[in-house]
Design goal:
The complex is a heterodimer of chains A (251) and B (266). With 251 residues, chain A is an all-alpha fold. Chain A is built from eleven helices and no strands. The model of chain A has no long low-confidence stretch (mean pLDDT 90). By secondary structure, chain B is an alpha/beta fold. Chain B has two domains: 214 residues, Rossmann fold (3-Layer(aba) Sandwich), CATH 3.40.50; 45 residues, no CATH class. Chain B is built from nine helices and twelve strands. In chain B, helix 5 runs parallel beside helix 6 and helix 8 crosses helix 9. The relative contact order of chain B is 0.15. The chains are: A mainly alpha (251), B alpha/beta (266). Chains A and B meet through helix 1 and helix 5 of A and helix 2 and helix 3 of B.
Chain lengths: 251, 266
């Protein structure tokens, strides 16, 4: 664990020194939040739209933006830089645990996601959003979104370790990107067309989004929140196992 | 006798598009403790692949290797504690400062924060980078990066230092500085295993050397013995250079134009 913490600190320092990589993770989700609310806010007024539970449409859209912000997989992009630049081999030539090599970046990613989520939620308050589930709910939002960031970064790290190419890692990450939109991102699942509802129901991201949404909009459905955490935990275990397998067979 | 580096029948194969590619085909090596051992060969001969196997970065397909008595395949972490590695591309993190990089490296080998701070300072002094120690590595010149790479490979005082083409791409002055560092490191008792494409470098630094070609060792000995052997075998009137030894061993020829080596052809 000591080695993981040492390498995580280095990964965080690296992020602080690369603000140009942090900027899009904040700007792009905010952009989508503002644009989506601007386009559909009048269609779904808070006063007469039941699924908004008295909030504006921004509250409904916030979870999509939070998930988007947590889905840049910057850990993997920094990892592939290490691979291409030779620093990864220097680390591999030290007697540190192979687990620490992949876990450290995921841990750093979770810290970054916690901060990013807090900032995005804080900014959304200016757009009239309120976290109806209170401080406890806010903490659960942070935890769930950070856990998703770890899952997504884990997926991207698999591509980085397999291809060892920055370009492939970036484009490989985009393959997963549409999954974020095959969700009930604009209306609840029950209002989707049947094919879209089936697609959304098969998409694990849907359950994380719905868990975040219930925490933001209130009337907390603990079953939904539990399901979101269960999905992210399951995916997390799978990604971690695959990352460990990949690093142990890295040649 | 415990060799600093010992390899027997070392092989590495990769799956290729047209079948199995044999990069290293049964390499035997015996490097004594305290010597500077040169590992020469043309591009693609298997030098780097051999080094990567010896340093645990690549799995060994067949054969066995030990570093200071520790088996590379059976106890890779044991080997990693005994070796320092500076590969072809200086493996550095451009966003850290030189001091941060060395401190982290020392801590990864188990030093406490206070010990690591002292180690980093000592290593910066060793490679004459104290003044630049707090600058980001991305601001370093090529020569400074190589020196920092060397220092980073030495933080845990390894028994064997592997240097894979340490001066490739450097200007002559930086190259000589690296040679001086290598001599200094070796004088402290560290065995140095060095790959290079520069025969002058091997002549200057190495106590013994081996030439690899096509994945197998084709010649091994001290530079002076190898030159004397070639002179006797070819009945040469002048002392041959290590270039001549290399060309003879690898079956290559060269065309000299106005005294310059114009090309080396297979």
């Amino acid at each position: 664990m000591r080695q993981t913490l040492l390498l995580s600190s280095r990964a965080l320092r690296e992020s602080v020194r690369t603000p140009e990589a942090l900027f899009p993770t904040l700007f792009i989700p905010l952009f989508f939040l503002v644009v989506n609310v601007g386009q559909a806010g009048k269609i779904f007024p808070g006063t007469s739209t039941a699924f908004l539970h008295g909030q504006g449409y921004a509250g409904f859209q916030l979870p999509s933006s939070l998930l988007l912000g947590a889905s840049f997989g910057s850990a993997a992009l920094f990892l592939v830089e290490d691979i291409e630049g030779g620093y990864f081999d220097r680390l591999r030539a030290t007697p540190i645990s192979r687990t620490a090599l992949v876990l450290s970046r995921l841990l750093a990613e979770s810290v970054k996601a916690l901060l990013l989520t807090a900032v995005l939620v804080a900014i959304s308050l200016l757009l009239g959003v309120r976290v109806a589930s209170g401080i406890g709910g806010f903490l659960l939002i942070l935890l769930l979104n950070a856990a998703w960031a770890v899952v997504y970064a884990g997926f991207m790290q698999l591509i980085a370790l397999k291809t060892r190419s920055g370009a492939a890692t970036q484009s490989g990450g985009l393959v997963f990107f549409p999954l974020l939109f095959l969700t009930p991102s604009f209306v609840p699942r029950t209002m989707l067309t049947r094919p879209m509802e089936i697609a959304a129901s098969c998409n694990p991201v849907t359950y994380i989004m719905e868990a975040l949404r219930t925490l933001v909009l209130g009337h907390v459905d603990w079953g939904s929140v539990g399901l979101g955490f269960a999905v992210v935990a399951g995916l997390g275990v799978v990604m971690l196992a695959l990352n460990l397998r990949m690093i142990r067979n890295y040649d | 006798m415990t060799w600093a580096v010992e390899a027997e029948g070392l092989r590495k194969t990769y799956p290729g598009r047209t079948g199995e590619v044999e990069a290293v085909r049964g390499v035997d090596l015996h490097v004594r403790a305290g010597e500077v051992f040169g590992f020469l060969g043309p591009n693609g001969a298997g030098k780097s692949t051999t080094v990567r196997m010896l340093t645990t970065l690549l799995t060994i397909t067949a054969g066995r290797a030990t570093i200071a008595g520790t088996d590379v395949a059976k106890d890779p972490d044991g080997v990693r504690r005994k070796i320092g590695v500076a590969l072809q591309e200086a493996g550095l993190d451009p966003r850290q400062t030189g001091r941060e990089l060395l401190t982290l490296q020392a801590r990864l080998y188990g030093s406490t924060a206070a010990e690591a701070k002292d180690v980093a300072q000592a290593q910066l002094e060793l490679v004459d980078l104290v003044e630049s120690g707090d600058r980001r590595i991305k601001e370093y010149s090529g020569g400074m990066k190589r020196r920092l790479d060397l220092a980073s490979a030495l933080v845990h005082e390894p028994e064997v230092l592997f240097l894979d083409e340490p001066t490739t791409g450097l200007d002559p002055a930086s190259r000589i500085t690296i040679w001086e560092e290598v001599r200094r490191i070796n004088a402290r008792g560290t065995t140095v295993f060095l790959t290079t494409q520069y025969l002058e470098e091997a002549d200057q630094l190495c106590d013994r050397l081996a030439i690899i070609d096509g994945g197998t060792i084709v010649l091994e000995g001290t530079p002076s013995d190898l030159k004397a052997d070639l002179r006797e075998r070819k009945q040469l009137s002048e002392e041959p250079t290590l270039d001549d030894v290399f060309l003879d061993a690898t079956g290559r020829t060269r065309t000299r134009v106005a005294g310059e080596v114009a090309e080396v052809q297979a």
